[in-house]
From TrEMBL:
Membrane topology: Multi-pass membrane protein
Protein name: Unannotated protein
Transmembrane segments: 27-45, 57-76, 96-116
RDD domain mapped to chain residues: 20-128
Cell compartment(s), UniProt: Cell membrane
Species this protein is from: freshwater metagenome
């Protein structure tokens, strides 16, 4: 049985607007964001017992608010900004607010953030058409 020549069944390679940020850098950025949310929660809600359901909920809400607000204003959360990561659309443009909210909520579900494709984009990025790219390059000394 011979196959007729025709269009390739493989998808076209995805053209990304920059170098995808590495997994280690992205994990470090989310850890910074989470730690900042814990610290802010302790300052604002110091009366809550750390580790309680109320405290955990407060930390999660602060995390969501921080990531959404900073990504909307600066295309990067606090931790991403520190580590030189930007979150952009596949064409390099800024994400709309609704895409940022959906992306952040998917990150909170954890699984979409840890399952990623061969380009390094997580399910949360694929769902909203975004990519986390390196926004600054290390200085090379010659």
């Amino acid at each position: 049985m011979t196959q007729k020549p025709g269009p390739s069944t493989l998808p076209e390679p995805l053209e990304l607007p920059g170098e995808v940020a590495g997994l280690g850098r992205r994990v470090a950025a989310i850890a910074i964001d989470w730690f900042a949310s814990i610290l802010l929660s302790r300052v604002i809600f110091g009366q809550l017992t750390y580790g309680s359901a109320e405290s955990s909920f407060a930390i999660l809400m602060i995390f969501i608010a921080e990531v959404v607000l900073f990504t909307w204003l600066m295309s990067a959360s606090f931790g991403q900004r520190l580590l030189g990561i930007s979150v952009v659309r596949l064409d390099g443009g800024r994400l709309s607010l609704w895409r940022i909210v959906v992306r952040t909520l998917l990150i909170c579900l954890i699984i979409p953030a840890v399952v990623y494709d061969n380009t390094g984009r997580g399910l949360h990025d694929r769902a909203v058409g975004s990519v986390a790219i390196r926004s600054r390059r290390p200085v090379q000394r010659t």
